[in-house]
């Protein structure tokens, strides 16, 4: 397996786990991670350049996963905070978060699960679009 592929998936997994442990609740942290993800995605686009690679599936597409994850999570988090007035939370084992002292709602699940799934399937989507 290509090392670039493992790096992209590894960073995506680290972001998912950081969100699970509530480490992505700081706007400054999200902004710094977003800058790093933009640089990483730019590098992936450079590797994907038609001069360097052939069209179709490419392991450099996975380097976009952290950027897609951060953009979708940051946007959903912002909408959630405006609508509900609190940070979104997630507890994988129940519908109650003891740290927050509140029940989880459907929007908590959407804010956590949608970015994870969307960023995970993004390389497949981009490959399908490129082949069209």
Structure commentary:
With 132 residues, this protein is mainly alpha-helical. It contains four helices and two strands, in the order αααββα. A two-stranded antiparallel ribbon has the order 1-2. A hairpin with a 4-residue loop joins strand 1 and strand 2. The chain is elongated and about 50 Å long.
Class computed from helices, strands and strand pairing: mainly alpha
**How is the biggest beta sheet arranged?**
2 strands, antiparallel
Number of helical elements:
4
- What sequence of helices (H) and strands (E) makes up the elements? HHHEEH
Large-scale geometry: elongated
- Give unreliable regions as ranges: none
Instruction: Count all strands and give the number.
Output: 2
State the helicity in percent bands.
55-70%
Question: What is the terminal-to-terminal distance?
Answer: 26 Å
Computed CA radius of gyration, to the nearest angstrom: 16 Å
Mean pLDDT: 86
Strand order of the largest sheet: 1-2
Q: What fraction strand?
A: under 5%
